[in-house]
Amino acid sequence: MTANQRGISRSDPLTITELNKGIKDLVEETLPRMWIRGEISNFRPAKSGHWYFSLKDSQSQVRVNMWRSSTYKVDFQPEEGAEVLVYGPINVYMPRGEYSITAEWMESVGQGRLRAKFERLKNELKEKGYFDQKHKKELPFLPQKVGIITSQTGAALQDILRVLQTRMPGMHVVVSHSRVQGKGAESELAAALRQLDQHGDCDVIIIGRGGGSEEDLWAFNQEELATAIFEAKTPIVSAVGHEIDFLISDFVADVRAATPSQAAELIVPTSTECKAAIQDQLHKMKTHLLLKIQRLKARLHSSDFQYVFPRIQNKLYDQQRYLDDLTHQVTGSMESRMNQASTALKAQIDELKSPLLDKTIIRHKEKLSSLSRELRDHCHIQVNDKAYALQSLIARLDDLSPSKVLARGFSVTRNAKGEVISDSEQAVKGEELNLTLHKGQLKVRVE
């Protein structure tokens, strides 16, 4: 007779242990894990972290065990009479012949309906583009003013303020109180967000609360609040105290923080981070300036006289030509007058070569000598005057040289294209100009 046939015959009965073991093997090996719905009764949490209770309906009940490894996943506080769904296998306790459910998961009956609404809204908003990365705004590196939307009596506010005070003492904070759960909480949250976004002059806004059940957090899964977050011009951080699941506000916000404390850490850097960022920016600025100076030096060396001083060069050439012409005129005039005087003198000598006119000749010679002295003196005076005028012109030309002009405090002004600015109308407000001085260069901005 096989084991399965035992107990059929009066002569071969089963023991109680064999009966219970047979039932245990049959139930545990053939029945799958299943969902069971009922009301909680006789709820008894143990110090070990395990939960023991019964599930009942109007006619029956079944014992339920939930070990600590599963209880931590339950996001609500079980209460007497609460209707729940549990999931797990059926187990038989052989010594007593009792069977029970080993619950691996438990949720309130309302959670199923909420989860369906959540998924439906999530898909709708995703189709509208509310979650698209292109709409996400970057957080400012060092905000000057932080807005916080939460309950003024909740622990979340104190957590945020504590972190901000530690990282950035004296940070300007604006707190907008709002209910964070219950009927109408989503409308209060949305109104507070719009007010801070439009009139709070904040650099970043944190909206959130501490943890809770799915029902407690439901205001953050509402379309009204999601729309307010999406339409905000200010960067928004969603900071609800739950680390496992995401809420609708997390998907829409520019940044999601797992807790309110983490939100404060995300928006305000530490002093070490600030110092590192400043050093990085200084290095980039130094490199940029050195490269720009090198380019400007090369440009100046290759185009100083070609582009900066063309008008001065032309004037210098004109003065040089004028000096050459003047020198030629003075020299030619003196030679011409000397030749004319010599010719006239020779003619008079030829006419006066008569012995009878010796006295006249002597007189004329004396007169000629006097005239010659006067002529020399006159020519000397003329030459000195012309030489003085020439020296004056040379001095003026020297003063007009580019180096002398710059040495007297003048400068050459150019725009970013290298064009010389000679008229204030050529400059544009806010434009950056380059000044070439006698020694060195300067950069200025038009006000």
What is the CATH architecture term of the domain at 139-269? 3-Layer(aba) Sandwich
Radius of gyration from CA coordinates: 52 Å
Going by helix content, strand content and strand pairing, the class is alpha/beta
Work out the helix count: 12
**Could you tell me the mean pLDDT?**
83
CATH superfamily of the domain at 139-269: Response regulator
The fraction of residues assigned to DSSP E strands is: 15-25%
Shape: rod-shaped
Would you state the CATH class of the domain at 139-269? Alpha Beta
- Briefly note the CATH topology name of the domain at 139-269: Rossmann fold
The low-confidence runs, each spanning 5 or more residues with pLDDT under 50, are none
> What is the terminal-to-terminal distance?
110 Å
Give the tally of β-strands: 15
Main beta-sheet annotation: 7 strands, mixed
**What percentage of residues falls in helices of 4 or more residues?**
40-55%
Q: What letter string, H or E per element, gives the SSE order?
A: HEEEHEEEEHEHEHEHEHEHHHHHEEE
Question: Keyphrases for this structure?
Answer:
447 residues; alpha/beta; OB fold (Dihydrolipoamide Acetyltransferase, E2P); Rossmann fold; five-stranded parallel beta sheet; 15 strands; 18% strand; rod-shaped
